[in-house]
Design goal:
Length: 350
């Protein structure tokens, strides 16, 4: 009898391990789909919280408030496309044509110096052919990105319209005795993601406006396109601002080394203010993400999952930190005060 029980326990353990291995394998194969689903969750969190805020302010039902938010978002997008869309498209097209020549001019400038010539000859200097090959591959990527964006928006609309059904479905997978705590964890993750998205969106807007305005004041061409690019790339902390500064400096270098230096100073000042002043103020009530962990997460998930890993690395790290804090530090270790660390968000809505 005891041997039979041991055999049953051992068989059950093996089945659990086998099932876990299968789930990990399937998740790995469907990693892009899961990351897109997480992107849908981010958009749904944004839409739902905007709708809840509008509902509290206007006393509209939540569903009607969500419809107003969606229609207003579409209206703003259409208004932007009609008013400045043609100008933005023209500037991005000009930027696309300008960058190869700017790179060639920068390479010629480097070759005037011994160290620059060695850099170019070593193969680390910028080459127009490399940019052209990347641009060719990017054309196909744009179409895939548009279809993925449509998938994210559809998933987000369904999640935002009826979040309770999906939330209750997840809670039913948890043992009844732990469902109350699981609900607290889900609430904390939702609140943390909302505060991160809100802060990041405002930071992106500030970066776009400040970059475009600063470049216009300096007389740098294509300022509007470069500002929008800076705002979009600012979605990825740490790495995005660097990538956004490169085309701005190259376009400015086509005007002259002095303009390039001025643009570089402008980019550094804007990103320093955004990184050390604006973002900490906007996200001071969210879970603090150490910069070193953020950079490692972006690089690591980028290596594992490519572009989408880079895009969603920071919010995924945020979710992981909330899970570790609540389920391991607080529940498993019994450390409720964080060991004297600065106060963190507890998941309660303001």
């Amino acid at each position: 009898m005891r041997d039979g029980a041991f055999f049953t326990d051992r068989t059950r353990a093996l089945l659990v391990v086998l099932l876990a291995a299968i789930l990990i394998f399937v998740a790995w194969q469907l990693s892009n789909v899961l990351l897109l689903g997480f992107g849908g969750v981010l958009v749904a969190v944004l839409l739902r919280n905007l709708a809840v805020g509008l509902s509290r302010w206007t006393r509209l039902p939540a569903g009607a408030a969500l419809a107003v938010v969606v229609i207003a978002s579409i209206g703003l997008g259409v208004a932007f496309a009609v008013s400045v869309g043609p100008r933005v498209a023209e500037q991005f097209g000009e930027l696309w044509r300008t960058l190869p020549g700017a790179l060639a001019q920068f390479r010629a400038f480097l070759e005037r110096f011994d160290w620059g010539r060695e850099l170019v000859e070593a193969g680390t200097g910028p080459r127009p052919a490399t940019l052209l090959s990347l641009a060719t591959g990017l054309v196909g990527t744009v179409f895939n990105a548009l279809s993925d964006l449509l998938l994210v928006l559809v998933v987000a609309l369904f999640l935002a319209a009826d979040p309770g059904s999906y939330r209750n479905g997840l809670l039913r997978l948890v043992p009844p005795a732990r469902r109350a705590r699981a609900a607290e964890v889900l609430e904390a993750m939702g609140t943390g993601l909302w505060r991160w998205i809100l802060g990041q969106s405002i930071a992106m807007l500030i970066a776009a406006v400040a970059t475009a305005a600063g470049l216009m004041l300096l007389g740098i061409p294509l300022a509007l396109a470069l500002g929008i690019l800076a705002g979009l790339l600012n979605f990825v902390p740490y790495l995005g601002p660097i990538l956004a500064g490169v085309p701005a400096v190259l376009v400015a270098f086509a005007q002259g080394p002095t303009e390039a230096l001025q643009t570089l100073v402008l980019v550094v000042v804007i990103q320093s203010l955004e990184g050390y002043v604006v973002t900490p103020m906007l996200q001071r009530r969210a879970v603090a993400i150490p910069p070193a962990l953020g950079i490692l997460a972006i690089v690591g998930l980028g290596v594992l999952f490519g572009t989408y890993g880079v895009l969603f690395a920071t919010p995924l790290l945020l979710v992981a930190m909330i899970l570790i804090r609540m389920l391991y530090v607080e529940d498993a270790l019994g450390d409720q005060d964080g060991g004297g660390e600065p106060e963190r968000d507890t998941g309660n809505r303001p």
